[in-house]
Amino acid sequence: MAVVLVGLVLWSLLAWVGYVLVDPILGWVAASAGLLVDGGRDIATATGGKEVGTILDNLNVSGLLGQVIALLRVVLKPAIVVVWAIGALVLITAPLILRKIGRLLAARRH
């Protein structure tokens, strides 16, 4: 039982760290993505002419990235909670399941 409790504490700590770090990491990705898109647009315009820059502006890549990051902000935190709950349930039921499997294997040997 102590192993299960230690496992639950470690699993909860890992989930909590992931939950807390979602916003800062997505903020960093959003800032970096904007810089990368602008740099790529400048390089494309310099090497391919104004037509390529116009095409990239029409694609609105930065708007798409913003929408993807906003979607991730909405989805990731609940997903972390769901994965934590599934993992906690597995940790709690693992000793019971392993005990039953051990009994079945021991009965099969005789």
Key features of this structure:
110 residues, transmembrane, membrane, single chain, mainly alpha, transmembrane helix, 3 helices
Regarding quaternary structure, how should these chains be classified?
single chain
Termini separation comes to 29 Å
Q: Roughly what percent helix?
A: over 70%
> Which H/E pattern describes the elements?
HHH
The overall average pLDDT, rounded, is: 83
**Count of DSSP strands:** 0
Beta-strand portion reads under 5%
Supply Rg. 24 Å
Largest sheet: none
Name the overall outline.
Answer: elongated
- The SS-based structural class is mainly alpha
Enumerate how many helices there are, as a single number. 3
List unreliable stretches of 5+ residues.
Answer: none
Transmembrane segments: 79-98
Keywords: Membrane, Transmembrane, Transmembrane helix
